[in-house]
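Predict the structure of Tubulin polyglutamylase TTLL11 isoform X5.
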Amino acid sequence: MLRGSPERELAAWWEAEAEAATAAKAQAAKEQVRVDPGAAGEPERKAAEEQPKEPTPGPPRAAEEGDARVSPRPPPALPVYRPKPAPAQGLCPHGKSRSKGRSCKRSSGQSDEYCSPRPVTVDSSKARTSLDALKISIRQLKWKEFPFGRRLPCDIYWHGVSFHDSDIFSGQVNKFPGMTEMVRKITLSRAVRIMQNLFPEEYNFYPRSWILPDEFQLFAAQVQMVKDGDPSWKPTFIVKPDSGCQGDGIYLIKDPSDIRLAGTLQSRPAVVQEYICKPLLIDKLKFDIRLYVLLKSLDPLEIYIAKEGLSRFCTEPYQEPNPKNLHHIFMHLTNYSLNIHSGKFVHSDSTSTGSKRTFSSILCRLSSKGVDIKKVWSDIISLVIKTVIALTPELKVFYQSDIPAGRPGPTCFQILGFDILLMKNLKPILLEVNANPSMRIEHEQELSPGVFENVPSLVDEEVKVAVIRDTLRLMDPLKKKRGNQGTGDRTRDLVHAKHAFLH
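Done. Here is the predicted structure for Tubulin polyglutamylase TTLL11 isoform X5.
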């Protein structure tokens, strides 16, 4: 064979491959313009619309003849990337029809990827007084509410008082078994006193307490002993019924002999505590703080603290307790349910005025006077975490008793109401913990004697809707399927306290 023949054979093979590629390219172009309008939702397009025309000089006929006369052989066609058209409405990214509640698997065989995630379902049939704030929160999250319950399981069950349902085997319930019992005044005092005996410096945020009637003799003996050692000591004590709420049955005393013993304590046990005589005052009024705390999990212990809370004011200027003013409840007791009946109670739509304000407005006012707000917050967070730690052992016993491991049942979470008093030196003092803090976003207004009307409270709505909404976001059972775009990643109103611990 001649030396140049391999080159000629290669050239001939190259030309044949080029012609075949050109023909295949033309055929593909014809097929590409055949679009099914029913499947993709687009009208058919002509080939001329798909291929852009290049401008040619002279009359079209001459250009066509010139193109026919000169036909250089093209080089071998390389694969051309053509972007896939966007999926039509009603189709998933892979061209398959969407259907509610069904998933579309990736072609790579990875885990399911939801094209249109179903909304989270919430059973609000037992929400009671928190229903209005809950409805607003569900609407803002675009979730699905079932106000009368439903036969199929829901993702979240929202209860107004406590959880004792035995017919819920899945989902999440916003109450822990045994929480109501654990935060009653006597049980809370016992739990904190155990920790005070072990860590007296860490738990000095809770007033010295005695349980009545069991510890009445001990209470009287200890008070007398201190008075004998310091005759100038003139203490004041506050008596709180164990099962009382909203200020019911609370009164102040100066001496153990003033306790109402006649039959009351036998039928209604109580706790007696040292009264904080030097509270921080604003506008000459005593106030306390209602903070909302989410107990997300017991094991591992996971706590969130709301950034915003309520400040509830007395309606009479404060004076230190003396025999003449001990019975002035509007001066000494900050309970909203009591002071709302005072003629001096001020309803305000402003967050920084009136008898109920936001906690942030108080912090802002203190900051303007040079107070270290970060230190105040740090002390409050420490108080909350240590209190929950004191309650956790017995809470776990209740939880494992009602929902044993291995048996079908819901997981639990709960919003708690911490009532905290700031002393004049800005030290926070724990007053009590509420298992069912009020989530009402309206208040009663007396139109005429004995005639009341519910009026929206903008301060309550601003604080409580944010707490419930972000609680739902954190408990969202579908956020993992949504990935990084899940609603649980956008909580703004709760501070995560999971990693805080006792030093």
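Residues 206 and 491 are 31 Å apart (CA to CA).
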